[in-house]
């Protein structure tokens, strides 16, 4: 398949760079394994500017979750560093929130929706009046004001994931990490949740790193897409998504540029898989 023509990557502008919101430099992670070390992330260097929405795609098992755990301070890299707003990440940072794929396991079934959203704010030391405000605002933002007193198990999967998003948003994070958050919901709900996340991102001053295995989702949501190689992963390619800022599930996906971008990302992922099968290593020398 011929590679789709793309404009040169414009993500690295000239002139002095402002301080990035998230700075990943030479990140490397090798798991001890069971007597045999497993190199998951070979060398990742990238940055997210303040307020950016960046999607990460890559072949299955390439190290996306490993990367996110390192970014969230849940796991120490073997070498390299992660900085959030200029401060090294050495444990879970106070101004970062994560939304995981498995909403069923991330919500407490014995707590109401309101209590689930409020809990991290109590742990953060937010005062009672402000907590109430944040919980109400975030539940309204995800369209769940009427379900505040329900328990998670009384809600559909899509609604539970909305609760998880509300909880992350209420925390007022500077950076929101999302790990395949819509992989377990049906296609229609998924479209609604994609639009919800873009809407929240545009209204709030938050930087988003969104990991997905779905190329269409990455192109639809992101301002930039980073393509990871197969494990041990390196940054294979990146592209700026030069689609109009207003995204629409029908119009955007019909845009010929959308088709070009998704074909490009698809070809890159195929190349990553082919390279790893040929050499047993990442696609870059
Ligand atoms: N705790 C661990 N010990 C040893 N190896 C691990 C561990 N966790 C992950 N790995 C290996 O590291 C590599 C990357 O795994 P990771 O889960 O980060 O990939 P992923 O891209 O998130 O996968 P998926 O696409 O299936 O969600 C894989 O080869 C995996 O087997």
UniProtKB/TrEMBL annotation:
Keywords: ATP-binding, Nucleotide-binding, Transport. CDD domains: ABC_NrtD_SsuB_transporters. Residues 1-21 are annotated as: Disordered. The keyword Kinase does not apply. The keyword Transport applies. SUPFAM superfamilies: P-loop containing nucleoside triphosphate hydrolases. Residues 22-255 form the ABC transporter domain. It comes from the Bacteria. GO terms for molecular function: ATP binding; ATP hydrolysis activity. SMART domains: AAA (SM00382). InterPro entries: AAA+_ATPase, ABC_transporter-like_ATP-bd, ABC_transporter-like_CS, ABC_transporter_ATP-bind, P-loop_NTPase. This is NitT/TauT family transport system ATP-binding protein. It comes from Murinocardiopsis flavida. The lineage of its organism: Bacteria, Bacillati, Actinomycetota, Actinomycetes, Streptosporangiales.
